[in-house]
Amino acid sequence: MNYEKLSKLFYKIDADSYDKEFIKRKSSYGSYSTSLTVRGFRKGHLTNDSFELFYVNTHELMKLNNEVLLNSSKISSLIRQLPKFVVKPYFNKLIINEAQSNNEIEGIRSTKKELKEALNALEQSEPQHKRFVGLMKTYQFIDQIDSFKSVRDFRKLYDELVADEIVAEDAPDGELFRRGYVEVNDGNRTTHIGISSEQKITEALDALIDYLDDESHPQLYRYMVAHYYYEYIHPFYDGNGRTGRLIVGSYLSSYLEKYSAITFSYAVNKNKEKYYKALEEIPSPLNRGEMTFYLINMLELLLSGQKGIIEDLEFNLMKLNRIKNYMKSDQWVDYKDERELFYIIITINVFVNDHVMLSVQELMKISGKSRHIVNKVMDYLEEQGFVELTSRRPKSYKISEDCLEEILPS
């Protein structure tokens, strides 16, 4: 028999066979029980059923788990091949993409320009009154977020990540979390009802912390189960999706690496229907609390994000080889400083943005050269048509389109 969803088998086999299949799955050698319970949910209403979440480590799930680990190793290897000066700008590009996707999933309006300005404000230690500074700070240090040891840690993350973006009527009205009723609606129907009181929210979050510490469960499965359970608890009136995806990202970054972790929302945003369907199927009474197929879907999403990064890095590293060959030509032999600065500009252009502009100050910081040398070099590169002056205050440059087309023809 193919391994199918219990909710499908219910309509294919008789009731006795269905019950036997459920018991077989729940008690099999490859089964993991979580001690986390959920209320049944059907047609917009909670049912009287209660289920312990469990999953079975099927061949398909194990295969996906191994693929994620192999891709993570590949990403780390590719990142090591990047010039050091481009590693941080490249990660910042991923942060902006991820934050934009996370906002889009929740219907929060933000532009990449806004997010980049928030990131710049953070890096320059400007007063943190700009929108999304907290969001960008959290993403930038995603691999430094401590594991959650107290329910207060969930509130702390909420305050740092989304509190400034939440309207007053949706702010937490309990000691740490919400006190009142909350439901999720997709515009046509109710798809979820959160846990009913702050006391029960706190108890469920305590259980979630215990589960996150349970090393008898494989890490990837554990973190994805925890992601679902946090969304099921729904501790806040608003901001649960953004904080929930950041929580799973923080654990993934500690187990894999931050590049895989940071693409999770980006992958979800491209496959929102798959993501929400996977979440909504779990509390169905016919599903009996099984999470195997949810885990398969989540690992597939994670894999799609990883594959996107791998393809991007491999393609850009091929471009980098062409750039290196170009820089070996005779025209650069007597122009060491010019060659170094132009290599920096074109490499950042390839890995970060086709239209990236770099100021004299930024070029000084990256290259370690004096203002006098940088100004002299940039005057030469502009005169030769390699770069264009885009701003006088601050003095900034971008690579010229003709030059880019000559070196890296599309």
From TrEMBL:
Bilayer-spanning residue ranges: none
Parts forming coiled coils: 98-125
Keywords from the named record: ATP-binding, Coiled coil, Nucleotide-binding
UniProt KW Methyltransferase keyword: no
Record flagged with keyword Acetylation: no
Binding site residues for ATP: D238, G239, N240, G241, R242, T243, G244, R245, Y275, Y276
Catalytic residue positions: H234
Gene3D superfamilies listed in its UniProt record: Fido-like domain
GO molecular function: ATP binding
Originating organism: Bacillus spizizenii (strain DSM 15029 / JCM 12233 / NBRC 101239 / NRRL B-23049 / TU-B-10)
Pfam families: Fic (PF02661)
Domain Fido per the UniProt entry, residue ranges: 149-297
Protein name (Swiss-Prot/TrEMBL): Fic protein family
